[in-house]
Amino acid sequence: MPDIRYVCLSDLHFGAENSILSSLKDDHITVDPSKASSVLDGLVAILRTLIEANEDQTPKPTLILNGDILELALANDNVALMVFELFLDRVFPSGGDALFDPVILYQPGNHDHHLWETARERQYANLLDTLKPDDVLPVPWHGTSLYYLEDSRPVHSELLEELAKRRPHDQTIEFRVSYPNLGLRSDDQKTSVVFHHGHNVEAIYHLMTTLKDYVFPGRRPATEVWDIEAENFAWIDFFWSTLGRSGDVGAQVGLVYDMLQDDHAIQRLAGNLSNGIAMRVAHKGIAGRFRWLIKGVLHKVLNLIASKVAASERRIPTVPLSEKSRVGMMAYLTGPLTRQLAGEAPKQDGQLPEQVKFIFGHTHKPFVESTKVEGGLANPVRIFNSGGWVVDTKEIEPLHGANLVLLDENLEVACVRLFNQATRSTDYRVRLDDGLPAEQGPFYQRLSTLIRPDDDVFKNFSKAVAGLVTERGRSLTDIIEHAFDTEAPAS
Which domain holds residue 343? Predict the structure, then answer.
């Protein structure tokens, strides 16, 4: 019988106050990095139940962390890392059976993008080791090879590996960093599974490319994955992956982010900004007489800008993937990803795999589908979204939730729907996602015998999720309502 060989998780956002995998202090706002949340313990219990059912316990499954694992944009580094330690302690228990192979594959997303930047420097240093003293230094490379497990010189995250050494583990844990795509392929080369965090499906993460195309319309367009990253990495790294390290400013940016989840708060935020700017630029003279007009114009402009920033994919609650993001996903699949698949085909002959499976997260709305992709891929691409673990709206969003993505040795993919947000606690039930009949082979059939929602391990997990989703919604409401207090709560 097929065993679990790969386990993919994404969008855990360790350290974020709105992640149900973080534990909060009594104020229900501040993360307590010394204590594991009940949902984190429940997740590990489910992982252990499923993995221990493997008929062959060697090797252990490989853990693939597919982005936004650490919350580096809206939390302090130390908090995010300490919560991550709690996870490592549970999946690599000292004196107990480890759940995973000690080599973890880490694919950064937008909220932990900075881990890629530090790994990219290590990748460049590895390259320098191969050069002669008089060789011309090449331009730094903004990506890793697609089939990363076949790479003879993988890039390591020194930060995460040093972090893992702080606690007693029975094995030395390695973190191999890939970006922006990680591929697995079958022995016959006919099937490729590609992991990508998913931020490249949204236009905002291509902002610098868009500006370049407007300002210099005749320039060569960015078509390769590394070209897109080269043009946009600084913007992504600054805005989405370093603000948590900005002291009090970082905390206040986190507060602004929370406010962008609420339409009324957006209005108040734009009003405060426009009033403050109007007071500064029109405090005396003739301009002062028109302060009301300046304020009104600024309010409309700033409200429009704030609304655009807030209108991310996860704030569209009616469909698993909005039309704009679907267009972005198709553009990524047909363009940069297809070219990378062709460029790293066997013997560089450009032969594309017969079947491509695309696994991504980022949107926090798990779904499974099959879609036809033009441009060289013969068969429809099978799409698997892993969802997310944060509560970033005051209202319950039924499409928001998390998938546990599992693969066997034959690269059959199965998604365990761990939860969707719901108004009734009884609606939280772990189940096997049955969205793709083509993936319901022997691996799926075996998992269907293991996932029994009424067993204690699944019931306890569902109960914990229901409680924390409700609690995080109340916390977000409190944060937004007190956002304009003199002493705003820390994010």
Answer: 6-202+322-481
* Contacting residues for 354 by C-beta, under 8 A, at least 6 apart: 190, 191, 378, 379
SS3 for 79? helix
Residues 93 and 179 in one domain: yes
Confidence grade of residue 245 (pLDDT, cut at 50, 70, 90):
low
Which tens digit of pLDDT belongs to each residue from 433-459?
988 999 999 999 999 999 999 999 999
| pLDDT-derived band at 419, boundaries 50, 70, 90 | very high
Is the separation of the CB atoms in 41 and 468 below 8 Å?
Answer: no
Residues 349 and 299 occupy one common structural domain: no
Q: CB neighbours of 131 closer than 8 A, spacing ≥ 6?
A: 137
Q: Are 83 and 198 in the same domain?
A: yes
DSSP string, 439-478: G-SHHHHHHHHH--TTSHHHHHHHHHHHHHHHHHHHHHHH
- Which phi and psi angles does 190 have, rounded to 5°? -85, -20
Is 435 part of a structural domain of the chain? yes
Residue 230 belongs to a domain: no
Q: Tell whether 316 is covered by a domain.
A: no
Q: Do residue 136 and residue 279 come from a single domain?
A: no
Three-class secondary structure assignment of 199-268: HHHCHHHHHHHHHHHHHCCCCCCCCCHHHHHHHHHHHHHHHHHCHHHCHHHHHHHHHHHHHCCCHHHHHH
Instruction: Give domain status of residue 117, yes or no.
Output: yes
Q: What is the mean pLDDT of the chain?
A: 85
Torsion of CA 347, 349, 353, 356, to 10 degrees: 100
Q: What are the angstrom distances between the C-alpha of 236 and each of 13, 216, 246, 418?
A: 16, 21, 15, 29
pLDDT at 64 over 70: yes
Give me the residue label for tokens 């589908």.
369
Q: Which residue has the tokens 């997260």?
A: 361
Pick from 184, 223, 224, 198: nearest CA to 355 = 184
Tens digit of each residue's pLDDT (9 = 90 or more) over 311-338: 567 667 789 999 999 999 999 999 999 9
Which positions ≥6 away from 260 have C-beta within 8 Å? 266, 269, 306, 309, 310
Q: What angle do CA 41, 44, 46 make, to 5 degrees?
A: 110
